[in-house]
Design goal:
The protein has 348 residues and is an alpha/beta fold. Bound molecules: S-adenosyl-L-homocysteine.
Length: 348
């Protein structure tokens, strides 16, 4: 079966040529797919015979809304999508002044093992296809009935651990016949897989790279993030500096402040030293409490931010949206997994 949703217009044309159809149908098909068509019958400008051929060679399997939570505070909407094979992933719709943003997952689960993160507790089930990442944006926009102008790859999974599918997804959303979302409206967050950062740098995309740092010293970072044992802080900063040099894009560093773990004065100072000479932005995140994790949010957000700013580092505290729902990464899927464990069935 063809994975039409993961294909560019050129690849669709190629596939259609192989079925004895004219190439221009590729563009029409692409447009229907990217409008969120749920069946081939909807594609009324395609001849009946072609729709029949498509039905024989491909399936359209939009994700099902397994759970949905709407924040009463700020209109944030969180979705738990069930994929055709029963795996579940999350997306979050957020309204910002600069536009509507969807946060998407890149994998079902995660194998990076960060100590504070709910997404990684049960490991990685599988990678998502480009089409499955795209569907989260399309069907979120359709469900909320509003357009999406920004995308962040900050949901479940490590985007650079699913590099090819993520890159394909970026190409797809960028297409004028699709969502037409420019690279400057896209952010990709990584835990620090250096080979992926280097591959991305070579492509010189204009997206915003966010690096989940969470500690400026190897001892703390390795404790929080096992990836640091393979790619340590020094190597990571070198890769980030090279990334900036190649792309000209300022990097955003994510830093979730955890009580007594990474919120000491010396860590703010070390961070400022490391960032010296590199245009960067530090995003301080209030730690979301995850029931399974024995880590508490820091009470020193303001002090930590002031210390950084005094040393010339731009640091902002991330505004928390969806505070009344499970809007933290991986929480909804985690809850569904626990429920299905209790019920003993395999849902999600
Ligand atoms: N794997 C990627 C993207 C997914 S996580 C990455 O590591 O960047 C998106 C962001 O949420 C990351 O910065 C991650 O470190 C952060 N995060 C995960 N769990 C969190 C929690 N409990 N509280 C605050 N931030 C968290």
């Amino acid at each position: 079966m063809l994975d039409l949703k993961s294909m560019t217009p050129e690849e669709l044309s190629e596939a259609l040529l192989g079925m004895g159809e004219p190439a221009f149908r590729g563009k029409q098909l692409f447009q229907w797919l990217h409008r969120g068509a749920k069946s081939f019958d909807e594609m009324t400008n395609l001849p009946k015979g072609l729709r029949e051929k498509l039905r024989e060679n491909a399936v359209l399997s939009p994700p099902r809304v397994a759970r949905k939570q709407v924040s009463k505070l700020d209109g944030t909407v969180k979705y738990l999508w069930e994929l055709p094979d029963g795996n579940c992933v999350e997306s979050v719709f957020m309204r910002y002044r600069h536009g509507n943003t969807v946060c998407v997952s890149s994998q079902a689960g995660c194998r990076m093992g960060c100590a504070f993160c709910a997404s990684t507790i049960a490991g990685k089930a599988r990678d998502l296809t480009a089409g499955e990442i795209l569907d989260q944006v399309l069907f979120t926009a359709l469900d909320v009935g509003d357009a999406v102008s920004n995308i962040v790859l900050m949901g479940i999974g490590e985007p650079l651990d699913n590099f090819d599918a993520v890159l394909k997804f970026l190409d797809l959303v960028n297409r004028p016949d699709g969502l037409n979302i420019g690279m400057r409206h896209i952010s990709l967050s990584t835990c620090g897989l250096i080979p992926g950062i280097r591959r991305l740098a070579d492509l010189r995309l204009q997206l915003t790279l966010s690096v989940s740092l969470h500690a400026p010293d190897n001892e703390t970072r390795s404790r929080l993030m096992p990836v640091n044992r393979a790619y340590d802080v020094e190597a990571l900063f070198t890769a980030c500096y090279d990334y900036f040099q190649r792309t000209g894009r300022r990097i955003s560093f994510e830093y979730a402040l955890i009580d007594g773990v990474n919120d000491h004065d010396w860590q703010a100072e070390r961070l400022a030293e490391r960032l010296h000479g590199m245009p960067a932005h530090v995003n301080l995140i209030p730690l979301n409490r995850v029931t399974e994790r024995n880590l508490r949010p820091s009470r020193r957000m303001g002090e930590f931010q002031a210390l950084l700013e005094r040393r010339g580092v731009t640091a902002t505290v991330r505004r928390s949206l969806g505070g009344d729902i499970d809007a933290s990464c991986g929480q909804l899927r985690r809850r569904a997994l626990q429920l299905s464990d209790k019920r003993g069935d395999a849902e999600c």
